[in-house]
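Memo to structure team: turn this sequence into structure tokens by end of day. - J.P.
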Amino acid sequence: MEDLLDFNNCHLCPRNCGINRNISVGFCGCGSTLKAARAALHHWEEPCISGTRGSGAVFFSGCTLKCCFCQNHLISQGTLGKELSPKRLEEIFLSLQEQGAHNIDLITATQFLPQILPALDLVKHKLHIPVIYNCGGYEKIETLALLKDYIDIYLPDLKYFDSSLSWRYSKAKNYFEIASEVIPYMIEQTGELRYDAQGILQKGVIIRHMVLPGCKEDSIQLLHWIKENLPKGNYLLSLLSQYTPFYKSSDYPEINRRITTYEYNKVLDTAISLGLTQGFMQEKSSAKEEYTPPFDLEGI
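Reply from structure team:
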């Protein structure tokens, strides 16, 4: 598995683009130099993640998906970010812990694992808070296997059931095929949900699903898959209503709007009817642009 960490022939993610990222950029838009755009306390994750003091969120540049509606598109699809060394990343992790962060939240980190893992090696004996892997659900099991001794909590998206939707909106025709394999693996790797005395999650998996305009039936299919395939009680489900037309949404008229209360309630009612009640739902008021943090290089 060690060759997964070789930038000369990159196969870190399911794109398997094989690019030599020392001389060019991969599908993720990144070369071999670690870049991040923000490292600060973040209060807009799920309550058992953000708690009262916030999550220590580190937003890395680039992404292995091409979501046309990405709220973080300035960093995921662009070049915004500052170059960092593993030593500087270690300092950032410790600073977030000193600021009172409940955890270290690695956001879209896959493309930089060859630098992030050494940084965690440098700091893990000094960290006494969990480390979160916050991702789009489009991962390789071989890559996740490398994280076994580093990651306490997985926070994956489960975006689509229908491959035509995942291709149209995220340029990943095999999205469900991949995500439906790796999410059970994440649950197996982390084991049962564990919390501290304050109710802050210390170990486990939270599966996020954001309901898209016009796609409630796809969401309902995903809920049925979750019910039928994942071990009850070993994960939390977070149903998101925060979709806001961002980035290139205007190129796709059918999703160039917010979801309706009816659409979200149909999905929520299905979750309840299936007994998928261990987790979180969002108020419709969450669909606001101000929930996206400023990528101003704070903390970097």
